[in-house]
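It is time I had a proper look at our fold encoding. Can you supply me with one protein entry, sequence and fold together? It will help me judge whether the discrete encoding reads sensibly. Leave the record below and I will have a look:
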Amino acid sequence: MVTIMIYLFILLLVNFLLLLIGLTINKRSYTDREKNSPFECGFDPSVHTRAPFSMRFFLLAVIFLIFDVEIILLMPLTMNIMTSNTHWPMTSSALFLIILLMGLFHEWNQGSLDWMK
């Protein structure tokens, strides 16, 4: 019990020293307005609050979310494909990928993904 208390005291002391060192050598200026202002969606919200944000930012976020969900859904399928003796897991994953690629090509041909060309 005493050794645990000694370890906790040493860890607390090291954390306090690191915090103290970080605060003393900090070069950040708290008076700089630009650093303290929030920056979201590619524009400064304090100037025009109703200004529309860039469609490029929106499309990039949507594409990121779609492919992020795709990876989450496809990761368990690899284990299912390896352990299954039927063709259904491979067929369903191929169908899922084809639907996603058709959607991506449709968006690309509609012109909303001009920034990717």
User: Anything to note?
Assistant: Residues 2-28+54-116 form one domain.
